[in-house]
Amino acid sequence: MSGARLHTLLPELTTRQSVMVVGAAVIDVIADAYALPWRGCDIELKQQSVNVGGCALILPWR
Questions:
Q1: Per-domain residue ranges of the chain
Q2: How confident is the model over 26-53, as pLDDT tens digits?
Q3: 19 to 22, 45, 53: CA distances (angstroms)
């Protein structure tokens, strides 16, 4: 659907029933370490990937 068509349809939308969304977002940053650090020491990490996920529960709401 084109952006122009979507722009003309959006004002015509009406609310049929309210909903409540309860959810959570999770971001995992995966990194590679050459060794585990000693207590109080810092080490350099190499970022491997970032994964985004989450969950949600959608409930009818009055």
A1: 3-61
A2: 999 999 988 888 999 999 998 899 999 9
A3: 10, 43, 21
